[in-house]
Amino acid sequence: MRISFQLIVGIVFVLWCMDVRTDAAIPVDIIRVAIVKNSASVTVDGDGLLAIRENGEAVSLAPPVIIRSVRDTVVVDGVAYRRLTMTAPAAVIVNGKPYRGVAEISPTDKGLLVVNELPLEDYLVGLINCEISSAWPIESVKAQAVIARTYALYRKQARSNAPYHLESSVIDQVYDGCLIEDSRARRAVSETAGQILTYNNSIIQAFYHSSCGGKTESADNVWGAVLPYLKGVDCEYCLTTHSVSWEQKLSLRDMEEKLRTAGVKVSGLTDIRPGLRNGRGRLKSVIMVTARGEVAVTGDQFRKYIGYGVIKSTNFTVKAVNGDILFSGLGNGHGVGLCQWGAKQRALDGFNYEEILSYYYPGTELKKLFDIR
Hints:
Blueprint: H1 2-20, E1 30-39, E2 41-45, E3 50-53, E4 65-70, E5 73-76, E6 79-81, E7 84-87, E8 92-94, E9 97-99, E10 102-108, E11 111-119, H2 120-131, H3 138-158, E12 166-167, H4 183-191, E13 195-199, E14 202-203, E15 208-209, H5 219-223, E16 245-251, H6 252-261, E17 269-274, E18 285-290, E19 293-298, H7 299-306, E20 316-321, E21 324-330, E22 338-339, H8 340-348, H9 353-360, E23 365-368
Parallel strand pairs: 1-12, 15-22
Antiparallel strand pairs: 1-11, 2-4, 2-8, 3-7, 4-5, 5-6, 7-10, 8-9, 10-11, 13-14, 13-23, 16-21, 17-18, 18-19, 20-21
Helix pairs in contact: 2-3, 2-4, 3-4, 3-8, 3-9
């Protein structure tokens, strides 16, 4: 029975890999994405769910399965395993979200780690509608497919010895499995199959963001990385969207609590002031005025401490209003690399995806994977 079950798993996996190949000349690349981290338990479901334990033995489980973290093991129905790998013919469902490929569940010091391992091209199809809308002009969707593929492969190289290559959040790229896949997302991935951006024949760090507010940022200003293809370009294209500008009103009390939680000593916060700006117009520093003096943090640290979704960029002004601080800003994200809303407008203006990419990543070349291997 064990041999028969494992044989079925092997056949399903091989057929699944064969099905996702979009070009016979391009090898199937596998990517590993952390979809759950540090969780006390996860629920796994799926029609025809197949499970394999760490020694290769098949495990008979009746889905839905609740898996718990107990010390250095994963426990199902009172039985402990060091690792479980699960798949299903259509999709394996983890905490209600369907994923192609396999879900590998293993214990860590802080709880369960669930890694979705799947072909890169399938990962990209699932990612598109998490990052933008596949209903955008197809050339902008194709540009997104190329940079997401490039970013993923760069991270895979950088983390080749790690348990996973990518996070499934804004830390890397937003990915929620195959629930919101559609034909336009698959078309964009298929029509750019295997294409990546390179500089001097190496995969680039293809950073991107939602909107830049008129100028993309230099990677040197954000992370101290001097990259010739990420020096920043003028971008009037995203200014056509209403979402490029934002306002946020926060109380000094709430900000003080968040800053103190982050370890910033701001007891008795009385004001927030902008510091110096860099050559791209973004704040290099933000100054907190307290009862004991002034405390400065970098603009990016301030966004992190208050919340990336609250302070949407480092291009903002501040104004005190009755004990609150009113932030008025432009852009959404770190500003480095491709501006997604700008790419949409450039596509509407008639530019193709190659032209869009060369604008935001000057000096780069578009190549197929096998050209650099």
